[in-house]
Amino acid sequence: MPKPRLPFLRRCVTQHGKVVYYVKLSSRQRGRGTRINAPYYSEAFMQAYHAAVRGTPITSAPVVAKNSKGTVSWLIKLYRESRDWCHNLSHGTRKQRGPIYKRMEEQAGDLPLSAITRKKVEEGMSARTDNQARHFLNAVSALYRWAIANELFDGRNPAEGITRTRSDGGDNDGHLPWPIELIEKFEKRWPVGTKERLVFDVYLYVGLRRGDAAKLGKQHIRHGIVHLVTEKSQGKMPIYVPIHPELTKSIKACPSSGLAIIGKDNGTNYTKESLGNLFREAVEAAGIPVTKKGSKEKGYSAHGLRKASATIAAESGASEAELNAMFGWSGHQMAQLYTKNADRKKLAVRATQKWKRPSSEEVARDSELAFLQLEKERG
Q1: In the chain, is it the N or the C terminus that has fewer CB atoms within a 10 Å radius of its CB?
Q2: What is the pTM of this model?
Q3: Judging by beta carbons within 10 Å of its beta carbon (0-12, 13-18, 19+), is residue 357 exposed, middle or buried?
Q4: Considering Cα of 362, then 368, then 371, then 375, what sign does the dihedral take?
Q5: DSSP 3-state assignment of 287?
Q6: Which of 167-197 are b and which e, b meaning 16 or more Cβ less than 10 Å from the residue's Cβ?
Q7: How far is CA 356 from CA 349, 353, 359, 361, 369, in A?
Q8: Reported confidence tier of residue 190, pLDDT bands at 50, 70, 90
Q9: What b/e readout covers 267-276, taking b as 16+ CB neighbours within 10 angstroms?
Q10: Beta partners for 238?
Q11: What stretches of 95-237 adopt beta strand conformation (E)?
Q12: Residue 168 pLDDT level (bands cut at 50, 70, 90)
């Protein structure tokens, strides 16, 4: 996503081809203005830019040697060597947060831990898309929460109390749930017997995340029920989902030569990434929009099918406990989100069925009866 244009900022190219930036507040100001000597849009750049616009000197946090005790780089290094990082987080979460910590090291690695304030976290979020901001907030919060728990930092978690903006589509992960018309559109483009349809049906009828769908094998199906421990739970949360008749048709029509349900030509499992690419291409081929890199326009993904599956289950009358068992959730938050929305729809339908506009004569008669009843009670 292109970064927003900053007012009073001028971009210049030196005779050596280097891009430099100046802050010039008006055309009457002599020369090119105040030069910003820092990488574009880095924390140091923004600090110098705002100081130049306000006309105040830069008051930066005390800088110490990189990787010294008490710095951001020092903490990140310890955290990524800890059991919490290596064993308590899924591979996907580590892969997602790794680049975030790397960028933190590049931009603020030599700063003391106390220099990362709530304001700086909010500034970091505002420079990102909604989904990126959520991941950034989670990464910072986890880092400082671990530091405080292990007595490596005696301050306050700078991410504490920052609320995350809910994205479209129910919960806050930013994935749009598939509407029925798009589900039917995909099925029309990819009939039963194609691998693309098999992937689609696994997502829809079992409600698996991408990593779990990739590793799903024949050994996970016993007596017509999927028994699988979810990847995200680090082997702690099993799911039990009976195979839907439509999925049974799809599996039989696209058999794998190996154990994998969604198998490559040699019968082995796809990786999470390769399966994601396969499905994304199938969605585009069906004429359904997908999220483009750097675009704010949201499209439809595999996780959106999981949300559609949960929505259909809730609207079909599934209880919170049943949703937890099917989708591998714990607690009540996620299940309540779907059952609450389903209940609201049912209540709205019942209210509409009862809705009847009265005539003016009926309103007058009801008012008169209410008045007579009140007089009777008074006296």
Answers
A1: C
A2: 0.58
A3: exposed
A4: negative
A5: coil
A6: bebbeeebbbbbeeebbebbbebbeeeebbb
A7: 13, 8, 10, 14, 20
A8: very high
A9: eebbebeebb
A10: 229
A11: 221-222, 225-229
A12: very low
Give the 3-state secondary structure of residue 379: coil
| β partners of residue 20 | 12
Long-range contacts of 362-369 (CB under 8 A, 24+ apart): none
Task: Kindly give, in sequence order, each residue whose CB lies less than 8 Å from that of residue 266, ignoring residues fewer than 6 positions away.
Answer: 257, 258
- Give me the pLDDT at residue 170, please: 44
Buried/exposed 126-135: b ≥16 CB within 10 Å, e otherwise: ebeebeebbb
Going by C-beta distance under 8 Å and a sequence separation of 6 or more, which residues neighbour residue 257? 263, 265, 266, 267
Q: Hunting for tokens 């590793």 — which residue is that?
A: 215
88 residue type, one letter:
N
Residue 224 corresponds to which tokens in the numbers above?
A: 């017509």
DSSP output for 31-59? SS-EEE-S-TTSHHHHHHHHHHHHT----
In this structure, the number of other CB atoms found within 10 A of the CB of residue 37 comes to 10
Residue 99 has pLDDT above 80, yes or no: yes
Q: How far apart are CA 58 and CA 44, in angstroms?
A: 10
